[in-house]
User: What shape does this take?
Amino acid sequence: MRQATMIGKNLWLRPLRTLLSITGLAIAVAAVVALVGVSRRFEQSFLELYNRRGGDLVVQRSGGAMQLSSGIDERLGDKIRRLPHVRQVIGSLMDMVAFEQNDLFAVIVNGWAPDCPVLDAVTVTAGRRLEAGDHRAVMLGSVLAKNLNKQVGQTVELYGEKFEVVGIFDSFSVYESGAVFVLLDELQQLTNRPGHVTGYVVEVDKNSSSADPVAEVRAEIEKLDPKLSVLPAGEFVHNIAQFKVVRAMAFVTSIVAIVIGAVNVANTMTMSVLERRSEIGMLRAIGWRRRRIVRLIVGESLLLCLLGASVGGLLGWLAIRVLAHVPATAGMIDGELSLAVIWEGFLLALVAGLLGAAYPAWWAARLTPMAALRAKT
Amino acid sequence: MNDSLSNVERPALLRVEHVSRLYPDGNVTALCDVSLSVRSGEYLAIMGPSGSGKSTLLNLLGALDVPTSGEVYLDGQPLSTCRHLAAVRAHRIGFVFQSFHLLPTLTAWENVQVPMFEGARTCRQRGQRASDLLALVGLTDRACHLPAQLSVGQRQRVAIARALANDPPLLLADEPTGNLDSQSGAAVLDLFDTLHRKNGLTLVVITHSQEVASRAQRVLWIRDGRVTLPQE
Assistant: This one.
């Protein structure tokens, strides 16, 4: 027999307490895995959107905390296009709407120019792409169309106006698949931001002779208007205010989960040690060193936490899968979960296990054999 | 009471010199200036009324407690200078308790292995040793049973096997038959006899029972914290 067997049996043969502790830990870990997983995936998907479309730099009005509300003159696009090493410039006006009857409260609306390459990059699965001269026409992402139960030829209401669905498209990005595309000029008019775009995505020609063409273009754009914020796509995504809020929430939730998990484990292990004082006394009497007693208590705690983390990781993954199919969140969550987030859940559970076991293990190790043997179980 | 003259020739395994144990919180002197020695291979019974100090003496002999004054020597080594009393308990002393103190979640075979974690035996060697010891106490067929599935007599025999796990030269037993019926008690005492005669184990048994004491080679009486001879 190994000591690990003893640890396992101590938990296995006290099933109710073990089950309750695992449940408590699993809920905490599931909350963290789901929230951190969604937050990370949110950011990763957004970054992927820029990377796959070749976006090297994102140009926006500087100083705006909320990127959606920032606006820059669309004439700036032509100036950027004329700069050396610039391959492509895509301007877009973004807004957010709600379809309350369908419980969809945060649907992205993108206004694109008719010649925008994004309209060609998505896969039109029904109907057609938006064309110049379209009036009150929209394309719906496939996830949004499914959630709204709309097909080509039907109408949707945006900003109090009826729009005809002229096409339904699919995209690798969950955001685009859950978004509405309209023509830029119509969105500018509807949102009272004529001649403005939310920002530009700039693709740089990396085969040019410059040693660092991206840095060069960045500097040139900043010279055009000192009030512009020109950031590499990764940095831009990382600094989006909404993502910062989500990250902060995920962090706070993780801390709360660690505390709840550690208190839960501490409670379980303290009860367990108190109940087993005479057992611990016997182990000390037959020669077990204090550190072996500590190893026993910490081992039980860590095993509990590993089991809790396993169940919690699975629950968190299931929660994300379910959320990816719930209409309210389907356009924002793609159901993917990175392995790193599950590892973080495990790590968090282990930290909770160690913190929770610290006091009971210390207390058990300090018991003298005589005092412990006299204890009534 | 039997007395074996051959033991007189053997060196003292345990020596207690002027030991007192005072419990300051209750202002109680549990032991007062006790001196005795137990020779290697001796079978000693310690008798006395409740509260006489015999369990306190056993705790001091077993390195579970330290005296207020005086010294306990094991194999000539003073226990007060020993930095690792746990190691002494693990390898030099076997304990048998009145209420067995078996771990309820482990089988008999596993319980016997518990002291062996504090040793150099491999997992396989621990298992083999536990099997051998269960065979010695006649419980091979109960090896896979949990303590709750064993009779009290069988539990005590498992506890004896556990006490022998690290092959200690000294076995200390505190009322080993106190919770047993007469038949189980006799079986345990027979086992002690065997261990003493065949294995040369040194046995110190605390008991209230004259029947238990009659199996020992020598009986010490303890009263009001002092050791006396029966004739005294």
